[in-house]
Amino acid sequence: MAMIRGGAVDRPAVNFYEVGGFMVDPADPDPYNVYNAPDWQPLLQLAEERTDLIRMMSPVRARSIDPSGSTASEDWHAFFAEKRSEENDCRIVRTVANVVGRTLTQTTKRERELDTVWTVEHLLKTNDDVDVYLQIPDEAFAEKVDVTPLLAEEERLGDRGIVMVDTEDPICSVASLFDMEEFTIFAMMEGDRMHRLLERAAKRILERTKEVSRLFPGRLWRIYGPEYASAPYLPPHLFEEYVVRYTGPMVKAIQEHGGFARVHSHGRLRGILPHIIGMGADALDPIEPPPHGDMRLEEVRTACGDNVVLFGNIEITDLENLPPDKFDEKVRIALEEGCGGRGLVVMPSASPYGRIISDRTMRNYRSMVDIIEAACDR
Predict the structure, then answer these.
(1) Could you tell me the domains of the chain?
(2) Handedness of CA 218, 220, 225, 231 (dihedral sign)
């Protein structure tokens, strides 16, 4: 937090992103819990004991883009129904929405060996579906904000780390309703409908952001979703139209009560970085190096100046696949190019999501910490 506030620190921070960031229970015997696998225990322990922890938590539900679960309102159940099943070692969730005589359906799949949820059928498939969806009343998406778990986890962490409020922005909420191919065409060709969807999502998300900012002030936030309007999906002028217009007010609401807004955007930054800076972002992640991204870390540091904390620059594919000497060089380059300004948090762009953690992956995780601690010693 000293770094995020612009204060002096004795070393760059090191964080494993989702490892130590996600709230997981390695003792849970659920066959779908990959984190109870023996391979995960040394990595989870390393994160807890030797990294700067950032717990990613939502004040509304585990995945705040889902209008379901224990926080769903009675109005939600008036329009939506869920059917859960297991097929071929997969958990299948089929959501059916009945609106003005029309039926919309969505299907997700979670494989037993992987901690990720795939949407194999998206809710909105045509412009008619969009028009139907927009007729669902706002009350169906009502949610109750509860920061009590965030406060409890903050107390439990003590000085080992912080709690970060994790939230989608309006474009994430909207894009998640479509198959990606259909979304890019829709966003470019159906501006009026796109704005109607964004305005509706923005109203709910901004109200939530203001309330959480007031109840949980002065903390770090991560806003994810802006990448949906980055190249190669959409051109930069639509980033300004679809992200700056609707995500910018979230940044201001967070900062109004002393909070700090970290904007998350994978991939190419060159065309959108001026817009992110213009929104007043306090931090940026994951700043993927070429060829996954299109800017070197030193270019991003120069563009952001002294006002933005940089998170990331370690590509997960490098962490999992590079031999020790080449991976260590990646970490040292990140330190050389990213330090200065408001600060640097060395962090992978993602994390493993299967049961097996290879020896090479584990070694490279350890090396990240060792190199940062050695930098402190120097």
Answers:
(1) 13-64+143-377 (3.20.20.210), 68-140 (no CATH)
(2) positive
CA distance 296 to 85: 45
**Residue 375 confidence (pLDDT):** 81
Give me the torsion for CA of 312, 115, 163, 280, rounded to 10°.
50
Q: What distance in Å separates the CA atoms of residue 287 and residue 300, rounded to the nearest whole number? A: 8
- The reported pLDDT for the residue numbered 147 is 96
Half-sphere exposure of 193 (CA within 13 A, CB side): 19
| Burial of residue 75 (number of CB atoms within 10 Å: 0-12, 13-18, 19+) | middle
Q: Dig out the tokens for 97 from the structure.
A: 């929405």
Tokens, residue 236: 């930069």
| 323 vs 361: CA distance, rounded Å | 9
Q: Are 226 and 243 in contact (CB under 8 A)?
A: yes
Kindly give the parts of the chain with pLDDT less than 50: 64-65, 68-70
Q: For residue range 71-104, what is the model confidence (pLDDT) as tens digits?
A: 566 777 788 888 999 999 999 999 999 998 999 9
**What is the SS3 string spanning the chain?**
CCCCCCCCCCCCEECCCCCCCCCCCCCCCCCCCHHHCCCHHHHHHHHHHHCCEEEEECCCCCCCCCCCCCCCCHHHHHHEEEEEEECCCEEEEEEEEEECCEEEEEEEEEECCECCEEEEECCCCCHHHHHHHCCCCHHHHCCCCCCHHHHHHHHHHHHHEEEEEEEECHHHHHHCCCCHHHHHHHHHHCHHHHHHHHHHHHHHHHHHHHHHHHHCCCCEEEEECHHHHCCCCCCHHHHHHHHHHHHHHHHHHHHHCCCEEEEECCCCCCCCHHHHHHCCCCEEECCCCCCCCCCCHHHHHHHHCCCCEEEEEECHHHHHHCCHHHHHHHHHHHHHHHCCCCCEEEEECCCCCECCCCHHHHHHHHHHHHHHHHHHHC
Tokens 């494993």 found at? 16
pLDDT at 141: 87
Phi and psi (nearest 5°) for 10? Answer: -90, -10
Q: What is the mean pLDDT of the chain?
A: 94
User: How confident is the model at residue 69, as a pLDDT?
Assistant: 46
Of 251, 260, 291, 287, nearest to 272 (Cα)? 287
